[in-house]
Prior knowledge:
This protein is of the alpha+beta class.
Amino acid sequence: MCDHVPLGTDLCVDLNVRTPRSAPTGIGPVYPALMCDFGHDHAHDHHHFGFLVDTPAIRALIDETRRLTHDIRDDAERVEALKPAFAALLESDGWLPDAFATPDAASGMGGGIGQYALYRAEDASLCLFSLVVPVGAETPVHDHLAWGLVGIYRGQQAETVYRRLDDGGDPARAKLEVAKRQTLSRGGFYPLLPPTDDIHFVKTISDVPSVSIHLLANDTACVWRHKFEPASGLVTAFRSGYTNAPCPPERLEGAE
Length: 256
């Protein structure tokens, strides 16, 4: 258990059981020694994949993403081609249930931040989720490790993006500098093309919780990513977990 992780257990809402936050051992060289698993680890359940929210607007975006993934090999070109479909989802009303747009008091990311799976490919190649950040709250500085698009559906966010200056040779340390800051309101969005602009944090600056929509080429909340502390240079690996769906059991490369 990392010393900065709150002690206790997480409630896995869908299974109504508690499972301890735990950290795998025997971490391979790609990950730092300090590990924090904020997700819910339970048996693989097919009901938590596919369309967790099934609406024409979501299906249209996922279908277009699948088509372009098949037709366009270059990530940057694919993301560019996806922008009209993604913008259409952000501009549409009525497709996001209120239950997927509320803060989560038991948040794995802290600060009451809710992360709700809307669509998950069973092979972990694609996901769509909503991220709900309460008024005045902010995410940790983190990465995503996948190409995709992120946009604002409700409220307003301030985003701070970091540039990594070191070569990544020490997986437990990183030297970062602020690359840019921007403010986004509904309909505003940005691409993710790692390593460019992949490390950031966001803060809600509106008087209502912000809701951002993420379309990413992994199962974001269930993969091991990195949390950064720019002032100290510390890097820890973590899984944020979904509020409404468990992560399948998995072990890091090199784990025993």
